[in-house]
Design goal:
Layout: E1 6-13, E2 18-19, E3 23-24, H1 26-37, H2 42-51, E4 54-58, E5 64-66, H3 70-78, E6 83-91, H4 97-106, E7 133-134, H5 136-146, H6 158-167, H7 172-177, H8 179-190
Parallel strand pairs: 2-5, 3-7, 4-6
Antiparallel strand pairs: 1-6, 4-5
Amino acid sequence: MANTREPILQPVSILSLRPTQMTVGIREVKEKRQQWREHKSKKKQGEFVGKHMIPVVLGPDERFYAVDHHHLARALHDEGVKDILVTVIGDLSMVERDAFWGVMDNKRWVYPYDAKGERRHFKDLPKSVADLKDDPFRSLAGELRRAGGFAKDTTPFSEFLWADFLRRHIPRKSIDEHFGKAMEKALELAKTHNAIYLPGWCGPASDD
């Protein structure tokens, strides 16, 4: 049975949110910071926050665990925003603490992989959005989707799956020094049959 999304209209401290992933694409965070700055008035900023509530799961410790929109939460924090609105998509407050992360993993509400794409222990997850590390391949995957390299998909953490695919084919140095060229390579790779298993795949490229 699907969880009912329940908005929490009382603002929640951004730094109190517990991340369910280890990394973000800082390049994408910077873009969201720029979008925020374009909302100059308090009214527009309030409307923006109201339209972009963070989906969370309520844990057994009564904390909110963010299961999406980590880039937005980090961007708003970096812009000095203290509070955010959240919507509860799951209540696991009754789950025993030592079973909590296993349940989260089973529901695909956590992605404990580091900036090298390697799985880590749940205890290594950052305690706040301020501690999220940069994964340039996540930035590349996000830009690839916006460029039409693959379609938006409901698969949890789909852009991280694409990031890991790109990580195996493109040197990190290429992203750091020549992001445009890395994007060209990513667009080529996205149309190949090697990527057919990935969510939102739009290939193949024409043989003409």
